[in-house]
Design brief:
single chain, alpha/beta, 34 helices, Alpha-1,4 glucan phosphorylase, carbohydrate metabolism, Pyridoxal_P_attach_site, Glycg_phsphrylas
C-alpha cells in the first residue's frame, strides 16, 4: 500500500457524531446509570458511572460495528486474522471516545454532573489484564491501526480472568497479588455463547491419592466461548473485532457422574477447564505451569482456526481460495501450532491431499519473530503433544519427515544442518521446536527492526534463511499516535495541531513540518512548558497514588519495561551508584538534579530479576537518607507498571533509557513512544533505536557502548574482572553494593548479582558498557543545562518520529505480506 493510499484511507470521519446528540446521549447515559444497577442516579458509585458511560458508547457504536461486519460479509474481501497470546490494550474508554470523535459531548455530559470528575471516571476503568509487555502492546497498536486503515481484520486472543499479577513492593521486594480485572465485569465485551467452539483434548485428568494425573486415551473436550470487543478505528469509519476465548467444560456438573458417585471427576473437569484462561503466563518454572501454558496455546489456536475456517466457508466453497481470502499472522511462536492445526482441518475435515493442504497452509500463514534469545524460542515436549493433541503430533512428524527429505536433497553432505533445522530436538527429552515449525509452515517470517531481521537471518536461523531467502523480511514496529500522543499528551498534541494542523494524527510523517520550528524561540518556549506541565502533573499523581515525592524541576530519566537481564536495569542502577559515589567523594560537585524512574514487572520465577528490583529500591532508600545525595539524585521505582502508568510517565520524561545489550532487543516500542513525546534517548545501537537515530540524526541521541558485532566478537574472551580491576569507578560501585552499603540489615543479599557479574562472566556485558554509559550520561546532564539546546533536540526527535507509526507498519504488512486492501464502510446512517 503506497503512502498516498495510506493517507487517503485514514481521512478523519467522525462517524456517528450526529447520532451523539445531547438528547440521545443524555437519555442513553441516564438509562444505564439508573437501570443497570437499580439505584437512583444520585446514589450511583463512580464505577457505576463509568459503566454507564461505557455502555452508552457501546450502544451508540453498535450500529457502526454491525455495519462493518455486514460490509465485510457482503464484499467478501481478504481478511486479516491476528493471533496473539497477548493484547495489552489498556483502558478503552478514553481511546474509544477520541477515535469516535465525540469527546466534546462526553465531557459536557459528565461535567454537567457536579458529583463527578471527567478524569476520575476515566481512571475507574481497570487496565485489561490481557498482556504484560511489548509483544501485547504491539498487538493492541496493530489492531487499532488495522481498523483505522479500514482493513478487514480480527484479533484473536484469550480472555484471561486474572491477567499476569498486580505488583506491590514490600521492603524493596516485588510481591505478586492477583489482578482480578474482570471482578466487576467488562462493559465493552459481548459474549457469543451460540458461537462456542469445542476443542478435543487427548486425555482427561484424574485424582489419585490427592495427586492430579493425566489419563491418556480418554478424549475430553474444552469449550471455547467467544467474547467480542469493538476495535474502533480513528474517525469511527471501521469498527473491527477483538475476539477473546474463555474456556469452559462441556461436562460441567455431569449429573450422571455425580449420581454414580464420581462427583469429584465432574468437578475436576470443570475446574481444569476454567483454569485454562484463568491467568496470563502461568509459572513456567514447574512442569504443571509449562503444561498449562501449552494447553493455552493449543486452545487459542484450536478455537481461532475453527472460527476463521467457519467464516471463510460462509462465503467460499472452493478451498483453493483460502489464501486469497484469509491471511493469518502468528504473533511470535505462541500460535505456531496453527501450522499443524490448519493442516489437520484441511486433511481431516476438507479431505484434501497432503500436497494441496500444505500449499494452502503455507500461503495462508505468516510468522513474526520477536526474539534473538535462543532460550526464548519456544520448545514443547513431545509428551505434551502426545497427551493433549496426538493428531497434531502425527502431522508435525510428517511435516518434519518431508521437510528433512528436502533438506537432505539440497544439502546431502551436511548432517549438522539437518539436525539443526529439524522440527524435533532429539537431545535429551524430545521437543518440538516451535520457531522451526512456524518458519517451515508459513510463507513469511519477519523481524521487527532492521538489525533484528538481519541478525535473525544471519545468526539465529541462518540455515532457514539460506533455504527460504524469499520468505524473510523486515517490518520495523510502530505505535499508534492516537493513544501515545493525541490521548496521552494532550498539551503537546494541541501545540502540534495548532502549529501544523491535525493531519499528523493519521499521517505521522507530517510531524516533519515541525523541523523549522526547532529554531523558533517562541515555539521552543511553549514546547518546554508542555513538558514541565506534564512533569508537574505526573509528580502530583505519583505523590497521591504512591506517596513518593519527586522534583518536577529535575531531569526525569525513565526506564520502564519488563525486568530482564538483557534489558539491563542493572546497568542503570550501577550508574546511579557511580553518581552517588561521586557526590559522596565531592559534595560540591555540580550536577543537574536527576530523578531516575524505574517501572516494570519481573516474572515470578525469575529470581535474579526480582533481586534487581530489590537493589533498585534499596539504593533509592539509601540515597534519600544520605545528605550528600538527598535532593540531588533520586531513585523512584513505580509499582505495577501498565499501559495507564506509561500514558502518564512517558509524556513527563526527559530521558528515555534504551540500554539493552546490543543485539538482544528485537525492536522496542517504548523507545518510539518516548521519542514522539519529546524525550531524548540514551541507548545502545540496538533494535529500532538504530533506525530512530538514523531518522533524527545521531547527534540528537546519546549512543554508547558495544555494537552487536562487538558483543558477538567478544564472546569467549570477555573478562568482567578486567573492568573491575582497571576502572576505579566500576570497582568502587561494586564494592559499595557487595560490601552491604545498601543492605546493612540484610548482609550478603546481593551475592547472586555479584556472581552473575563476576563469577559467571557477566553474560550481558554490563561492566563492558558501564564507563561508556556513564560518559554519555555526563554529556546528557551537560546538555540539559542549556535549555534551548536541549529543547531543540527534543523537538527534532518529535519531528522525526513519523516513521514509527503503527499505521506505516500495518500498511507494509498489508501490501508486502498479506496482500490485503481496505474495505471502506459506507458513510451513511449508522
Amino acid at each position: 500500500m503506497s503512502d498516498t493510499a495510506t493517507k487517503r484511507n485514514v481521512k478523519s470521519y467522525a462517524c456517528g457524531t450526529a447520532d451523539f446528540t445531547d438528547d440521545a446521549g443524555q437519555e442513553c447515559y441516564q438509562r444505564h446509570l439508573m437501570y443497570d444497577h437499580v439505584v437512583p442516579s444520585h446514589e450511583a458509585s463512580q464505577r457505576e458511572r463509568f459503566e454507564a458511560v461505557a455502555r452508552s458508547l457501546r450502544d451508540l457504536l453498535t450500529q457502526r460495528w454491525l455495519l462493518t461486519q455486514q460490509t465485510h460479509d457482503q464484499e467478501n474481501p481478504k481478511r486479516v486474522y491476528y493471533l496473539s497470546m497477548e493484547f495489552l490494550i489498556g483502558r478503552a474508554l478514553s481511546n474509544n471516545i477520541i477515535n469516535l470523535g465525540i469527546e466534546p459531548f462526553v465531557r459536557r455530559e459528565l461535567q454537567a454532573d457536579p458529583r463527578q470528575d471527567w478524569q476520575e471516571v476515566i481512571e475507574t476503568e481497570p487496565d485489561a489484564g490481557l498482556g504484560n509487555g511489548g509483544l501485547g502492546r504491539l498487538a493492541a497498536c496493530f489492531i487499532e491501526s488495522l481498523a483505522t486503515l479500514q482493513i478487514p481484520a480480527m484479533g484473536y486472543g484469550l480472555r484471561y480472568e486474572y491477567g499476569i499479577f498486580r505488583q506491590t513492593i514490600e521492603n524493596g521486594f516485588q510481591m505478586e497479588q492477583p489482578d482480578h480485572w474482570l471482578a466487576e465485569g467488562d462493559p465493552w465485551e459481548v459474549a457469543r455463547p451460540r458461537q462456542t467452539v469445542q476443542i478435543p483434548v487427548g486425555c482427561r485428568f484424574e485424582l489419585h491419592d490427592g495427586v492430579l494425573r493425566a489419563a491418556p486415551g480418554h478424549t475430553t473436550h474444552l469449550l471455547g466461548v467467544p467474547y467480542d470487543r469493538p476495535v474502533v478505528g480513528y474517525g469511527g469509519r471501521t469498527i473491527n473485532t477483538l475476539r477473546l476465548w474463555g474456556a469452559a467444560s462441556p461436562d460441567f456438573f455431569d449429573f450422571g457422574e455425580f449420581s454414580s458417585g464420581d462427583f469429584v471427576g465432574a468437578i475436576v473437569d470443570s475446574i481444569l477447564a476454567e483454569t485454562v484462561t484463568r491467568v496470563l503466563y502461568p509459572d513456567d518454572s514447574t512442569r504443571a505451569g509449562q503444561a498449562l501454558r501449552f494447553v493455552q496455546e493449543y486452545f487459542l489456536v484450536g478455537c481461532s482456526l475453527a472460527d476463521i475456517v467457519a467464516r471463510f466457508r460462509r462465503g467460499n466453497d472452493d478451498w483453493q481460495m483460502l489464501p486469497e481470502k484469509v491471511a493469518i499472522q502468528m504473533n511470535d511462536t505462541h500460535p505456531a501450532m496453527a501450522v499443524a492445526e490448519l493442516m489437520r482441518i484441511l486433511l481431516d475435515e476438507a479431505q484434501l491431499g497432503w500436497d494441496e493442504a500444505w500449499d494452502l497452509t503455507v500461503r495462508t500463514l505468516a510468522y513474526t519473530n520477536h526474539t534473538l534469545l535462543p532460550e526464548a524460542l519456544e520448545k514443547w515436549p513431545v509428551r505434551f503433544f502426545e497427551l493433549v493433541c496426538p493428531r497434531l503430533l502425527e502431522i508435525v512428524f510428517e511435516i518434519n519427515r518431508r521437510f528433512l527429505a528436502d533438506v537432505q536433497q539440497r544439502y546431502p553432505d551436511d548432517p549438522r544442518r539437518a539436525a539443526g533445522m529439524s522440527l524435533i530436538e532429539e537431545d535429551g527429552e524430545r521437543q518440538i521446536r516451535m520457531a522451526n515449525l512456524a518458519i517451515v509452515g508459513s510463507h513469511s517470517t519477519n523481524g521487527v527492526a532492521q538489525i533484528h531481521s538481519d541478525l535473525l537471518r544471519t545468526r539465529v536461523v541462518a540455515d532457514f534463511a539460506e533455504m527460504f531467502p524469499q520468505r524473510f523480511n523486515n517490518k520495523t514496529n510502530g505505535v499508534t499516535p492516537r493513544r501515545w500522543l493525541l490521548a496521552a499528551n494532550r498539551d503537546l498534541a494541541e501545540l502540534i495541531t495548532e502549529s501544523i494542523g491535525d493531519g499528523w494524527v493519521t499521517d505521522l510523517s507530517e510531524l516533519r513540518q515541525l523541523l523549522p520550528l526547532a529554531d523558533d524561540a517562541a515555539f521552543r518556549q511553549r514546547f518546554w512548558e508542555t513538558k514541565q506541565t506534564a512533569k508537574t502533573r505526573f509528580a502530583q499523581w505519583l505523590q497521591t497514588s504512591t506517596g513518593q515525592v519527586v522534583d518536577p524541576n529535575s531531569i526525569f530519566d525513565s526506564q520502564i519495561k519488563r525486568i530482564h537481564e538483557y534489558k539491563r536495569q542493572l546497568l542503570n542502577i550501577l550508574h546511579v551508584v557511580v553518581l552517588y559515589n561521586r557526590l559522596r567523594e565531592n559534595p560540591a560537585l555540580e550536577i543537574p538534579s536527576r530523578t531516575f524512574f524505574f517501572a516494570g514487572k519481573a516474572a515470578p520465577a525469575y529470581q535474579l530479576a526480582k533481586l534487581i528490583i530489590k537493589l533498585i529500591n534499596n539504593v533509592g532508600r539509601v540515597i534519600d537518607e544520605d545528605p550528600a545525595s538527598a535532593g540531588r539524585i533520586k531513585v523512584a521505582f513505580v509499582p505495577n507498571y501498565n499501559v495507564s502508568l506509561a500514558e502518564r510517565l512517558i509524556p513527563a520524561s526527559d530521558v528515555s533509557e534504551q540500554i539493552s545489550t546490543a543485539g538482544y532487543e528485537a525492536s522496542g516500542t517504548g523507545n518510539m513512544k518516548f521519542m514522539m513525546n519529546g524525550a531524548l534517548t540514551i541507548g545502545t545501537r540496538d533494535g529500532a533505536t538504530i533506525e530512530m537515530a538514523e531518522e533524527a540524526g545521531e547527534e540528537n541521541f546519546f549512543l554508547f557502548g558495544l555494537t552487536a558485532q562487538q558483543v558477538a566478537d567478544s564472546r569467549g574472551y570477555y573478562n568482567p574482572h578486567w573492568h573491575y580491576q582497571n576502572e576505579p569507578e566500576t570497582r568502587a560501585a561494586l564494592d559499595l553494593i557487595f560490601g552491604d552499603h545498601f543492605s546493612r540489615d540484610e548482609p550478603g543479599i546481593f551475592t547472586p548479582i555479584r556472581e552473575a557479574l563476576l563469577d559467571r562472566g557477566d553474560y550481558f556485558m554490563h561492566l563492558a558498557d558501564l564507563t561508556s554509559y556513564a560518559q554519555a550520561q555526563q554529556q546528557l546532564g551537560q546538555l540539559y543545562a542549556d535549555r534551548d539546546a536541549w529543547t531543540r533536540k527534543a523537538i527534532l526527535n518529535v519531528a522525526c518520529s513519523g516513521k514509527f507509526s503503527s499505521d506505516r507498519t500495518i500498511a507494509q504488512y498489508a501490501e508486502e505480506i498479506w496482500n490485503a486492501v481496505p474495505c471502506p464502510v459506507a458513510e451513511g446512517d449508522s
